[in-house]
Amino acid sequence: MRAASAPRINSMALLILPSTLLFALFFFLPIGLMAVMSALTGNPVVMPNVAITAKHYARMGHDGYYLEVIWTTIRIGLWTTLASLLVGYPLAHWMARIRSRTGHALLLMAVLAPMLTGIVVRTFAWMTLLSDKGVINQILISLGLITTPLQLMYNETGIIIGLVHIYVPFMVLTLTGVIGRIDERLEQAAENLGASPWRAFIEVTLPLSLPGILAGSLLVFALAISAYVTPILLGGFQIMTLPILIYQQISANFNVGFAAALGMVLLVISLSLVIAYNHVLGLVSGQRELQ
Amino acid sequence: MTSLAPGSQRPLAAPTDRTNAPALRSRTLPLRWGRKLYLAANIAILVFLLTPIAIVIVFALNPTPFIQFPPVGASLRWFEKFFASRDFMHALLFSLEVAAMTTVASTVLGASAALAIARGNLPGSRLIVATMLSPLMLPAILTGLALFQSYVLLDVGRPLWGLVAGHTLVTIPYVVRTTLAVLHNFDVRLEEAAQNLGASPTRTFFEVTLPLVKPGVLAGAIFAFIVSFDQFPVSLFLVAPGSETLPVALFNYLKFDLDGTIGAASVVSILLAFTVVLALDRTVGLRSYVKL
Question: How many domains are there within chain A?
Answer without folding.
Answer: 1
